[in-house]
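ARCHIVE CARD
Drawer: 12
Card no.: 0347
Subject: one protein chain, sequence and derived structure
Cross-reference: see card 0346
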Amino acid sequence: MQHPKEERTLVIVKPDGIQRSLIGEIIKRYERMGLKLVGLKLFIPTEAQVEEHYLLDSGWKEGVGKKAIASYEKKGLKPSTTDPIAAGEKVLAGLRKYLTAGPVVASVWQGAHAVEIIRKVTGGTEPLTSDVGTIRGDFVLDSYQMADTDSRAVRNLIHASGSVEEAKKEILHWFSEGELVNYRLVQEQILYDVDLDGILE
């Protein structure tokens, strides 16, 4: 059985994050939480890679469509469609264009509750409603409404895996096993060793 400290998750800094020179800030936020970077690469994804990434979950299109519609209704706004699949397809089309617009940085992070911690630090999908103190809440002013008005994807800097299962699939999609590095950080002794052995000289 895998120890919780070995949990891994995927993060992609999207083209807007690269263009705004926020790579270091984003990495710093995750490192400060105690997570360990085990994979990192810069590249320009293809449309096929982006589509395959989002459709690794067969229910993604409908789920994201429902989420988009609900977000509109919660704000008292009328969505462009009430069909979740159509709404999801619109989101996917925007993401294909958005994520292939320039380079992205994909990274794999490891540590206890890595998926949940990364998502908490990153903030909600819609920057407008993300809490201050999260990456999206601190650095982005975009919203679903603005994105729809401009017929584009929401610019929210980062993709972060939504669950442990999703993370496993996404990591396999973007990284080969040889691109992931197993090593020990000195700080892991403080974070994980049961009795803090060896601190005193």
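Annotation on reverse: The two ends are 34 Å apart (CA to CA). The chain has a mean pLDDT of 93.
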